[in-house]
Specification:
By secondary structure, the protein is α/β, with parallel strands linked by helices. A seven-stranded parallel β-sheet has the order 1-2-3-4-5-6-7.
């Protein structure tokens, strides 16, 4: 999300979370001085998304930009999660997965985030591929931390995602590129249809 009007229109659909990307290499980068529109209701959780950003900078931006959740998409680990928690922020640790071995690596975390987000591994890309991974590898997940499922979710595979969410500890579905007109701009009608199916 980025444009104020689009944010406000999507907010009317009442998603649980809205993400704002502070990764400069992303086509969805909001910009250094971006402030999340105050018109977005408080019950919608605002998430700042980062890739290998310094923790002090994230904490500083959380205060100036207006988010209370942080999504980490880089090499961040236990130390960064611990520091962000101590600063009063909620943490989503995003991980790119393709195999059961990738999921096994997640089980080694010590300082646990509030959610793990599983996205599709594709080369050096850290999310935003618009492709889905083999959801059966979730059988290897052993931690008692709820999951956010990402990677190629759209209206066509929504029902399958809901079914798999009953089998694994998936609490949130992350829709992104498949509901976009262009990077960072959501098609509100598609968001609305997905929202209706989730009720």
């Amino acid at each position: 999300m980025r444009e104020s009007k689009n944010c406000e229109e999507v907010a009317q659909v009442n998603p649980d979370f809205m993400g704002f990307i502070w990764a400069k290499k992303s086509p969805r980068y909001v910009g250094e001085d971006y402030v999340i529109p105050a018109t977005i209701p408080n019950h919608i959780q605002k998430v700042g998304v980062f890739v290998n950003e310094k923790v002090d900078k994230i904490i500083e931006l959380s205060k100036s930009a207006g988010f209370t959740w942080v999504q980490l998409h880089g090499e961040e680990g236990d130390d960064e999660i611990d520091t962000l928690h101590k600063a009063g922020l909620k943490v989503i640790k995003a991980l790119s997965v393709a195999t059961r071995a990738d999921v096994d690596e997640v089980n080694k975390f010590v300082n646990l985030p509030d959610y793990f987000l599983f996205d599709t591994k594709k080369g050096k890309e850290v999310g935003g591929t618009g492709e889905r991974f083999d959801w059966n590898i979730l059988e290897n997940y052993k931690l008692n931390v709820p999951l956010i499922l990402a990677g190629g979710l759209d209206e066509n595979n929504l029902q399958e995602a809901l079914t798999i969410s009953k089998k694994y500890p998936i609490e949130v579905l992350d829709f992104n590129s498949k509901l976009e007109l262009s990077p960072g701009v959501k098609i509100v009608s598609k968001v609305s249809r997905v929202s209706e199916k989730l009720k």
